[in-house]
Write a structure and sequence with these properties.
about 500 residues, alpha/beta, Rossmann fold, five-stranded parallel β-sheet, about 40% helix, globular, binds adenosine monophosphate, binds zinc ion
Length: about 500
């Protein structure tokens, strides 16, 4: 671990993480010794998550697993936004939840429950660990009001539409985003819709009043009238309340670096009565980490255009969901990742090959191991350099792409103590969040496939019998019959897969 690691003869690789606030890789130094407290911005549950959204949680989960691997006692919090996120991140437009509820003529609470459950199903399918706490925004309205009341006198002003945060009242406003705009041409705040009476273009609503004569499905009393909290307020309150300011790491997708997180930071500075951001702790969290986007060839991934890339669509097409996790792990989280079906297919083959080779170790694998526990049990000279290489890769700002290749090397090592090898491979799989799923689970029947699995197995048995009797005409006929139903017979597959749906 980063602090107090035991003395070993092997090299120590301090965990280094890229901090978006300073735009540099920094050694991780926990706020509380041996602990890691992490907050991840969660989904807005007005629709199904697309697989781009899920990349943010595969990343956050991998970060958590690496912290566990390094020996830190992890407290991870992910929120569920069920109120307050407008159709434009910069506080313009309608509440996404209200809009969907109106379109579907359903209650917001039902909408929120349905899409939260859909999101949790994807979390499970991608082997994302349960965080210590899911904070639901509407459970924290009282705390949001307290927070807003505390910062309002010095930092906010009231307009007809709500209570606004004056960004000129805190030091270094927008530093997290400004560093980007120095690198690139676009200033996100230039496109923020003007609201009459706003003092600065970047000022944002922390409380949105319900317009006179209207009634919202979700609204609460406040000193500024009936209304609902702003999205940025929610995350400041839930992260600070559960983890305490300053906590260690705040994560989100790279879009949050532009508006949502700068606004959270401004509120945190106001709440903590903190100074400039030259001290990262003044932002509320020591490290701000952002995953880059999953993109489609045609551009930005969206929930409204083209084929909606939900995890379920991948499963419906016959891909095991963990193939998507594999696809994410093959890229660095800070690199843009282009989605393609060919890429997903290749990731699936690699995953099957990896797990197929590790399968003989199945009985021996232990989950949730740490670097220290691995070092205590894995002493064979063919394996210890791999422990080091794996640790070096993960410690280098989560270089999962390299860590995967080291895992494959470990699986391929011959003539070593099987128990030691199993401990190592099991720990590596768990650090990357790849469970040893049974081989049969990879045989997913695409939706609409015209053939039942039992029917395929029957045909395969008949074909085996024909071949045993050297009746090759019959065996070929069965193969053709299966091919006509979209089933490819895989003679001689090195992993022993007998057939697959093509
Ligand atoms: P939302 O539900 O819109 O609040 O988004 C949930 C998470 O997904 C946030 O952390 C976003 O930054 C992240 N996100 C949105 N689109 C993508 C994408 N295409 N690739 C990766 N992360 C994304
Ligand atoms: Zn957030």
């Amino acid at each position: 671990m980063g602090t107090g690691a035991p003395m070993t003869e092997t090299a120590d690789h301090p965990l280094t993480l890229f901090n978006s606030l300073t735009r540099s890789a920094e050694p991780f130094v926990p706020v509380h010794a041996d602990e890691a407290r992490v907050y991840s911005c969660g989904p807005t549950v007005y629709n199904y998550p697309h697989i781009g959204n899920m990349r943010a949680y595969v990343f956050a989960d991998t970060l958590g697993r690496v912290l566990t691997w390094k020996g830190y006692d992890l407290t991870h919090v992910i929120n569920i936004t069920d109120v307050g996120h407008l159709t434009d991140d910069a506080d313009a437009g309608e509440d996404k939840m209200e809009k969907m509820a109106a379109a579907k003529a359903q209650s917001i609470w039902d909408i929120a429950r349905h899409y939260t459950e859909a999101y949790w199903a994807d979390v499970k399918a991608l082997n994302i660990r349960q965080p210590a706490k899911w904070t639901i925004a509407t459970d924290y309205i009282d705390e949001m009001l307290e927070f807003a009341k505390q910062i309002a006198p010095k930092h906010c002003y009231e307009l007809d539409s709500g209570l606004y945060f004056d960004v000129s009242t805190v030091a270094d406003y927008g530093r997290l985003a400004r560093a980007v705009t120095e690198e690139g041409p676009e200033n996100e705040h230039a496109r923020i819709e003007a609201v009459d009476g706003k003092r600065n273009a970047a000022d944002f609503a922390i409380w949105r009043k319900t317009p006179v004569g209207e009634k919202r499905q979700m609204e609460w009393d406040s000193p500024w009238g009936k209304g609902a909290p702003g999205w940025h307020l929610e995350c400041s309150v839930m992260s600070g309340k559960v983890l305490g300011f300053p906590f260690d790491i705040h994560t989100g997708g790279i879009d949050h670096r532009e508006i949502h997180h700068p606004n959270e930071i401004a509120q945190n500075q106001a709440f903590c009565e903190c100074g400039a951001l030259s001290d990262a702790a003044n932002s509320g969290a020591n490290v701000w980490m952002h995953n880059n986007f999953l993109v489609e060839r045609s551009g930005k991934m969206s929930k409204s255009s083209g084929e909606f890339l939900r995890l379920q669509l991948l499963i419906d097409k016959g891909y095991h969901p963990l193939a998507y996790r594999m696809l994410c792990l093959q890229a660095h989280y800070r690199s843009e990742l282009e989605f393609s079906w060919e890429g997903l297919g290749a990731a699936l083959v690699r995953l099957k090959r990896l797990l197929g080779s590790a399968r003989n170790l199945l009985e021996l694998v232990t989950d949730g191991a740490t670097l220290d526990s691995v070092r205590a049990t894995v002493t064979h000279q063919k394996l210890t350099p791999l422990v080091d290489k794996f640790d070096a890769a993960l410690s280098d700002d989560l270089n999962t792409a390299v860590a995967l290749t080291v895992l494959e090397e470990a699986v391929a090592v011959k003539k070593v103590d099987q128990e030691q090898k199993a401990s190592l491979v099991g720990a590596m799989l768990s650090a990357l969040g790849l469970p040893l799923v049974p081989r049969e689970e990879f045989r997913i029947r695409p939706k609409g496939a015209v053939v039942e699995e039992s029917e395929i197995e029957d045909a395969m048995e008949r074909r085996k019998a024909a071949r045993a009797e050297k009746d090759f005409a019959a065996s070929d006929a069965i193969r053709d019959e299966l091919a006509a139903k979209g089933v490819e017979v895989m003679d001689g597959d090195p992993l022993g897969w007998e057939w697959r749906l093509s």
